[in-house]
């Protein structure tokens, strides 16, 4: 997966866990263990094939992709790619990065994966051609949280792209998703199993669960601000006002969260406009105020950035947060000079030089 990576495994706590487990006493061998783990990560299989399925972390790296392209990558070539955040610029590096970072979408064709800044978006038509070319029925992959633990995108009557995510309440117990695993049966059919996690000795209260759910929805709104704004503007007939039903329908379609009852959550997310609507029977929402309420993620220090710069920051906010988390070693939400210097030294040590 993309987290079996020299940089991401540091950012998301794996290095800290090694330090906690093996960094005590006179024989501190954490650096050697971390380096050995990096060696192991760099030779893990990129894809597994069964009689009916191709299983990979991200997905199809290009239109017309053949599994033989992965088979042609030697162990030595693969082991040189230590991080997908800076893999190199040759064809093999691009192929490996796209296998680990790409995502399926319902839109046909191939498109840049601007949400992640790496990989591509591939449509059901691309998936259908890939599976048909290889005599397979399923593309099974992970890489994205899905609320129900697994999600099936039908590509034709014969084949599908299936996302399965086994980490419950991702991330760090803060989310509200099911986990799932998929059993591939002896006859080639799939049997998904969902599960829900609970803390030992206690079950979270309804209020805590509700707050976590709302936090997740607000994050999704923030991540998709530009897409939502475009859809709102197309729907609005007067200024920046839309009906509550239009608001709910757009959130459902643009965020691909059709199972959420947006109308019941509207009082918590989007206040009704009352001024200047005397005599109107339809409840209206000011979508600009709604987006401003939930999308003030950037500090006042960059308020004067031009639109293109702001859009670039929004599109790459996940990567920016990853870098910030990597540098903020004490977790206080600030990066001081010592933390910045330490982070740069670690990056310089761990990222291989390009040849």
From TrEMBL:
* InterPro entries membership: Calcineurin-like_PHP (IPR004843), EF-hand-dom_pair (IPR011992), EF_Hand_1_Ca_BS (IPR018247), EF_hand_dom (IPR002048), Metallo-depent_PP-like (IPR029052), PPP_phosphatase (IPR051134), Ser/Thr-sp_prot-phosphatase (IPR006186)
Entry keyword Manganese = yes
- Keywords of this protein's UniProt record, alphabetized? Calcium, Manganese, Metal-binding
Give GO terms: molecular function aspect only: calcium ion binding; hydrolase activity
Which parts of the chain are coiled coil?
none
All copies of domain EF-hand, residue ranges: 315-350
Query: Which Pfam families does its entry note?
Result: EF-hand_1 (PF00036), Metallophos (PF00149)
Q: Which cofactor is essential here?
A: Mn(2+)
The record's comment on protein family reads: Belongs to the PPP phosphatase family.
Protein name as it appears in the record: EF-hand domain-containing protein
